[in-house]
Write a structure and sequence with these properties.
The structure is a single chain. This protein is an alpha+beta fold. The chain folds into 2 domains: 142 residues, no CATH class; 91 residues, no CATH class. The chain has 11 helices and 6 strands. α5 packs across α6 and α10 crosses α11. It is globular, with a radius of gyration of 19 Å. The relative contact order is 0.15.
Length: 270
Amino acid sequence: MTQEPQETHETPAARNVPAQLAALHADRRSCAVLVSGSPGGVIHVRDGMVVGMETPGAPGIEVLLLKSHRIAEDDWTAARATGTDPARLALELVARGLLGATELEVIGRAALFDAAFALALTSPDGWEVAAPRPLLDTGTAVPPDRLVTENTRRIRLLSNERGATARFARDRLEPAPAARDPRQTDRLSPRHRTLLAVTDGRRTPRDIAFALGRGLFAVMLDLRDLLALGLLQPPPATPAGRPSTAPRTPPSPPTAAPHPSATPLPRRKR
C-alpha cells in the first residue's frame, strides 16, 4: 500500500475545529488536522474517526508512561530502537510484554481525551487539513461529537465556563499558610500530598501534569480540591504574559494514586 503524499488538501471552510472534524467524519476522511496557536497541535483522523492528538498543552503517551514509571526509560528506549515507525513502537511495546494491547488502548484513549480538553480551552489561530502523519497507534478511535460532549462536561465540572477554566489552567498556585499545618495535611491522600509538594507558585497545572505524568484534567481536579480545603492560594499578581519557566521534574518520585474521576493507568498483571 502506498502512502499518501504529505501535502495539504483543500477542504470546505469550517467555522471552528469541531465543525471541521464533523465534516471529516461525514466524509470518512483520513488526514491530519494541523492546529496553530497556543497550545496548537496535530489531530489524527482515520476514516472520519479521531485516533490520536498531539499537543504541548497536555502530556502525551510517552510522558504518561515514563513519568508515572509505568515503563522504565531503558525499556522504552530499547523498544524505540527497533525502528522509527510509531506504529511499530506500539507493536513492540506489546510484544515485549511492557504493556497489554488493551491497556495501551486505555492509555491512548485517556491521552486523546486529555489533549482534546487542552485544545478546547483556547481558540486556535487557525488550522489546515493535511495528509496523514505518523502516529503511535493505540487502537483508539473516537467520533468527534464524543470529544465535544466530554470537553463540555469537563469544563462544567471545573468552573462551568471555558474562559474561567482556561485561566485556571494558567494559574501558578502556591501553598497557603494552612499547608504548613500537619493537622491539615496528614489527612490528605498520597495523591494530594504529592501534588501539594510540587505546587510552588511557579508551576502551572500543565507543568505539574508533565512533571508527574498525569493527565491535565485530573491534575486540575485535584488542585481544585486543595483550593477548596484552603491549602492552596493564587500567587501574587505578576506582569501579564510572563512565560512559564517552571521545571517539569518533581523533587522526588511521585507516589500519587489516581483520581476517582479520571481514567487511571492500568497495571499489567504478571
